[in-house]
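job 3f2a | input accepted
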Amino acid sequence: MVENRPLLTLLSHFVMLIGVIVIAFPVWMTFVASTHDQQTMLQSPIPLLPGRYLFDNYMQVLTQGFGRGFGGAPLWVTLMNSTIMALGVAIGKIAISIISAFAIVYFRFPFRMWFFWAIFITLMLPVEVRIVPTYGVVASLGMLDSYSGLIIPLIASATATFLFRQFFLSVPDELTEAARVDGASPMRFFWDILLPMSRTSIAALFVIQFIYGWNQYLWPLLITTKADFYTVVMTVSRQANVVDSVPSWNLLMAMAMLAMVPPVLVVIFMQRLFVRGLVETEK
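job 3f2a | predicted structure (283 res):
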């Protein structure tokens, strides 16, 4: 029996409310700043309520950009580039990882576990460590300033391979034997049985990897020199670090608000599968 403790309930709700305020207040201030003009944002104190330039600011960054420097490209172009990159990274990581895990678990070949541990050890080698040789390979293959150069070097994932391997190991052997008795080929078993069973894990990994690809900054910064391939994270950072001038804070905040929309939508629409993929224990 759970005891009814009104004071404890009130305290827990108060702490949760404080946490929500701490998290939401910066987002609210970003939105407020995106609705004012530049002159208002350079005055003190900064307003706490929205202004009357919401439509003007958002339309300018979406269709015209900032009109100078790295912010000259319209925002819809950078949003499209970031979306293509994030989708490519997420789908590529999942596709390669699930096939690798399937091969490691269900096929018997020499040095099978050596290959698995070689993949797993790459967890200790982030992109920043191997970025120079990776850049050299991408440049020699002529993939600079291209979507393939943005996506392909980032699609390998030891974490996703490990998670899929652990899930496949939990699948009962009787299911594999039944599929073999029914005459199912390995790929038929993978496509008709393992893939549907992995739906929640795929959804959870898709959300994580999409946000990972969306937030990439260093790699796109290195391999892109044309505005047609700038990502939204690059553009926000470069516009905030302008030299010999004051950043257009109202336009910068409008871009930041729009840059948050795609990841938030992905989390909202996939939250049920995402949570099930993280906490579900019975497959």
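job 3f2a | The radius of gyration is 24 Å.
job 3f2a | closed
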